[in-house]
Write a structure and sequence with these properties.
single chain; 895 residues; eight-stranded mixed sheet
Amino acid sequence: MTGIQEVPVHALLTDGTTVRIRQAGPADRAEVQRLYEEMSPQNLRLRFFSLNPASARKAAERVARGDRPGYRGLAAECDGRLVGLAEYEVLPGGSTADISVAVADDWHHLGVATLLLEHLADAARTAGVTAFSADALAENHDVLKVFHDLGLRVTRHFDGPEVHCTVELTEDETYLSAVESRGRLADIASLRPLLRPGTVAVIGAGRRPGSVGRVILRNIHNGSYAGRLFAVHPEAVAVAGVHACRTVADLPQVPDLAVIAVPAAAVAEVAEECGRAGVRGLLVVSAGLDVHQSGALMGACRRHGMRLVGPNCLGLANTEDGVHLDATFAARHPGPGTAGVAVQSGGVGIALLDGLARLGIGVSTFVSLGDKYDVSGNDMLQWWEDDGHTDLALLHLESFGNPRAFSRTARRLARMMPVLTVDAGRSEAGRRAAASHTAAAATPTMTRQALFTQAGITATRTIGELLDTAALLHAQPLPHGTKIAVVSNAGGAGVLAADACVEAGLVVPRLAANLVEELLALLPEGATAANPVDVTAAVGEEQLRACIGLLARHGAVDAVLVSLVPTAVAAATGEDLVRALTSAPGPLARAVVGVLPAQAARVELLPTAGGGSVPAYSDAEDAARALAHAAARADWLACLPGTVPELPAVETGRAKSLTAAFLDGHPEGGWLDPQATAALLDCYGIPQIPWSWARDEDEAAAAAERLAGPDGRVVMKAYWPGLLHKSEQHALHLDLQNPSQVRAAHRDLVTRFGDRMTGVVVQPLAERGTELFAGVVQDEVFGPLVVFGLGGTATELLADHAARLAPLTDLDVHDLLTSPRCSPLLFGYAGSPAADLGGLEQLLHRLSRMASDLPELTEADLNPVLAGPHGVTTLDARVRLVPRHPHDPYLRRLR
């Protein structure tokens, strides 16, 4: 990672204050000396173990010597003032560094020291430091607590009044969870001025009735907002009945939230004015900012510690008691409820709000993220996790700033409540031409789906499908399986509903004979109950109610889908079959959904006698997809979180040395040659078929004699830098059975490829087995993606692949092995022997570890991987490296 050695970053303290973290250097001499000289005598003694007046000067001189080998100093500043300093100096041997940390007296207990140490540890790891060493007075409880609470392994050694602490810098789940917890608390604190403001000012609420600012002002004013509301207008004393001031500085009270609805050219100036006044949150609905204007806006926000929603957004709303804030220009106020909604598109936001309103599902918090300069979907997930009001999260995100941090947050929240999203941006239009099989397989859709699957997010393809699923999850218990009973009063409708269930991945099982008998005893003559259950047009309300109740309480199925069409029989007898759907006696253990083809709305929530509701759909396909999503969520919840296993015989240090050596000789990056590829795979214990490199015909013949198996047959593959698809280039010969064939094959390759060819690879002919594909693509945003599926020459044609984001847990590997359509081949399809599943699991874990260790690994292409009952072997591999220094995705920083 480049970290903050080159580029300063902003991060949040525990109270939501923004500080700037940057490298300390010679220009900080005076500020560092001032930091120490302003400390109380007690704090100065705790820092230097004495009250020597020269200590402050010497400390400032150490920083002033600048960035030098083995030294790093990081400064935390706010409004240009240095409020904290952390330093390390590497000790002889190079793996341990002495550290010191100091915080201004009036900035204690805000998390400054902890934040600095997190960033200092990140910089140290990059430099190869594995541990920090620090001495403190035993009475310095604050600094000892800071070390203890970092989440890293700390050992203490007491020596009289002093304590020597050693802090191991290895990142593990305990440390990541500690960082995540600190970040969540700070993030929530920073969002309160936006989402629970005590005072709001609207800037740009003009006199024209249709202006966006005026509409937002009116919505806040008419929406029973519980706080104080002001308008800012250069010429008015009141706007739409709201008291107005000429400038933000003239307001009688500093607003927590300022809504900015001015022309793009004026946004940055207004933001700066807000920042100088002490505003903590900005909502910018203005659109059309150019690069310069955007930079100026963000500069003002970061300088003054303001969180920002937008620009180019619909606004935000919070319906909590005591808030009642509707700072949107939507046509109607969001109804109070428990659904949290965050969208990038204002149009999608309006559609979701309208759809939820039609269903009667109220909203806890709504945020239109717009261009998402600052506040993101990840921020909103953390807010909903803590707000005490939200139990259903709905997202529409077109981009991800930090997918791995998002994944951790979403995975945690999804254990508490359903998290649903519209999978936007599925098109591959404009995607760069694939450089390998792996790159061809790793589509944007696959990458996003991997993120959603691993995080437990329910991803739908359309807004309608999202609302369908939200209705079911809001109203009914989860189906803890995929077995569905289909009930209908018309045979054809029942068949269509059953087809829809099967096509959605559900199962419509044949019911047991005793259950069929019970059902037929309840139903009119002529009914059938094998599943689908045809209750016939003659069914009465009580009969249908009893049928639904029996199925919903029986363990044979996980959910009941009831498809009802209006009939003249029911009309003539006055039977209300829909009422039977919503009035089954007693609590039901299974989800029940209705399909009402005559219903005008796509989905409705029908109230039940017990105060709940039943979702009713106009199309069986919509109902089936919603049930499939609900069943998938239940399955995800039933699985314990996976673990990333420890892998023996991994040589990470040697792998990094090989990578560095290659990039030293190839600054632009490139594909490794066969020798370097094999050496890198060996570092991770990835099994490879024996092979030999040959530069000419004689060496090829000798290699063939040495490597040939009992049947004497070998394979010869041409090589030159940049060769990717050997089969397409006809750059290989298979089944060479004797020395003369080997020599003839080599001459053929030389004749066709000439000086381009730098050598050949000779391998024994592999035994029979299933040809698979495994690879890695390093995504610039999402990180490493591991792809697995059917291999061989048809891997791209058949596109039978699954993918998960690294690092892979044991559950991720299980999903990879079972998700492709070819997976039955691995488990002994049609009596054939099963593949070595343990070997495949190890291969995927080791590939994941390699991708996680080496951010420079841009592509790895193992194809084919031969899997048989006696083992797993890589027959061909390609690896591409490029210079890359990504930042730690879990290091706390604002975008």
